[in-house]
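Chain X:
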Amino acid sequence: MKRIMKYMAVPALAMALLSCESNTYEDLQDNPVVEGNVTYEQHVKPIIAANCLSCHGDGGVSSFRPLGTYAELKDAIQNTNLLDRIQRQNGEPGLMPQTGRMPQSNINMIVEWNMDGLLEN
């Protein structure tokens, strides 16, 4: 019985590894998050409002790096390591938001927004 369980575990592990979602830039290019281009107003602004502005908004502990406007977020993406920080795993130093990793779909949307040219509308 132990031998049968051992042989069943290998295919189960292989299937689990093969089903893992990849989140590379190349994968996003092949599998876009939305049809057409991702825009700040329609797609990204609600994600930032829900996940970032409690710290990066007016009066927040990180208000020195505001993310409440299109221009502020665009600047942060272009001139800081924001994309890297939102893609880190829970427990990694520098993860944003510090309260825990956003859902992968939100991260993918922000990454795709960057790939689409950081469009406002």
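Chain Y:
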Amino acid sequence: MQTPTATVPHFIAAGFHALSDPIRINVLELLRQRELCVCDLCEALGVSQSKLSFHLKTLKEASLVNSRQQGRWIYYSLNLPQFAVLEKYLADYQHFGQVLPARCCDNK
């Protein structure tokens, strides 16, 4: 799904914000292997469900994880296309040549 150009900076900023917390990084590392339910994530991370819920919300708002409900459990998995968006954003910086110096300002 293509996002409107005006929202791209929001998705980039949200993605990097979501990656800025050690607990969220640990969640993503656990989800690399397989889809997990909240109870498994809580146990593996040693955090309460309410604390984890805050971090999962941040990851979902950044579109870095998907969720699905099965019965009373919610299962989380990585949203790999969004990681590709962040990767492409960073990779685009490789195409820049030498940055030109600023022009002198004429303060008259």
